[in-house]
Design a protein that fits this description.
511 residues; six-stranded antiparallel beta sheet; 24% strand; 12 helices
Amino acid sequence: MREEDIQLALQMVAKSTSVEDDNEGDEVAATTSPGNSPKPLRKTRVLDISERRKQFRCKENDRKAEENGGIESSSWWCFPMFPNGIEKSAIFPRQSSLQIEEFNYSKENNNNKCLLRRTRSLNAPSPFQQFGPCGRIMKNSVMVMQIQDPASQRLTWYKPPLTVLVIKKVSDASVLAPFVQLVTWLLIEKNMVVWVESAVLEDSLLNEDTQFRDIRDKLVTFKDGRDDLTDRIDFIVCLGGDGTLLYASLLFQQSVPPVMAFHLGSLGFLTPFRFDNFQEQLTSVLEGHAALTLRSRLRCVMHRKTDKRHQANHALDSDEHSTPAPNSILVLNEVVIDRGPSPYLSNIDLFLDGKYITSVQGDGLIVSTPTGSTAYAVAAGASMIHPSVPAIMVTPICPHSLSFRPIVVPAGVELKISVSPESRNTSWVSFDGRNRQELFHGDFLRVTTSIYPVPSICAQDQISDWFASLADGLHWNVRKRQKCLDELSDLTASGSEDTFDEIENLKLYDL
């Protein structure tokens, strides 16, 4: 900002302050002198383009506000803002995400007091259900449901957590020292029962640590694929990269305990915590002081043509609250259908709620959650979706079509994916990069949103953590800032120091 602009701004502030002082003095005199009616307590001043201040009063807002204690009576909200003592009018529609809970002025000391509280709701506002003079949405009590605002999702323990599962990154020597420190602290300081995978105790480098040998016998072990951890674990701590969180999701195919992930890997998009002060952070979480991001998962059910009809119907109609079917799996990132080792294009039919949508001719198809939108899907050209958005992403992999763009569908739909009868080859399916299996002609895969999300603990909150991950992990929108335009500097930079002399010489030649 140039010096003359600063001087002009200072003069404007000084003038506005003097005008406000005069008006306040007039109001005091009017309210205290007998015979004079008091002036309205609410007023707003508008600073227009020509910098002339005009005053107006929202009479209808004042009347309704005095009756109802608020200003929701008007279709538009008009209220003053007070930065540095200068009032500026601001107008917001009723459906704005900024909602005013309290709007009070006080007569004490003739000072206007305005308390504006922002709800920070991440849900969209409830739509108006009447359309014109005659139309409206038909009420159906069966379909009414209440959705909690994601911004208000906080962790609470209805009983103290006693068991904790520690998952560490495998084959990484840099994680060994933090792992020993964490396990020792949980055992000795917090008196918790610590679970680890049995393969961890077979690490030769870890067994060479003298501190770990002292606590080795106190650990409870499990083996993946053999032991069921359902209702045995109260809390999960991950040490490593995003793969540790995906592994935790794989271990719990129903309800998942709260997950706290420390960034000790390479990317760290899903691991917001730093290990430097893990004692303070863990203590705060164990006391129930943490925000949660509920990361939705996809329930994938494979139906084989060779299966008996009653088994397929049972898997199709099975309730997710009951024991999941053997061919059912929950994924946190994505399910990928590709052409595998075949040189031919994949030819995959896609159905949505039983209706045929399209056929994918290309390398394959990605069906991902909002959490998985920043994984394989974003590499295939999809958009990045916040984890709190209820949606399913469908992204083609190298489609042989210039018009096949990724799509986002509601989270409540059911997708059916099968190999097209005209396909020259079969397809292959992988779930979060695991359990890869072949999809034959006549087989189909059913995908829908699971009722069991992964409760990921936030380091700050849902919004801050996500954008910090975009900036740190993916370097989203990293660019050198454009310099501000300065006429004098541009003029001197465009030519030599004799620019003005050259202009004068040209004028003389013209004469």
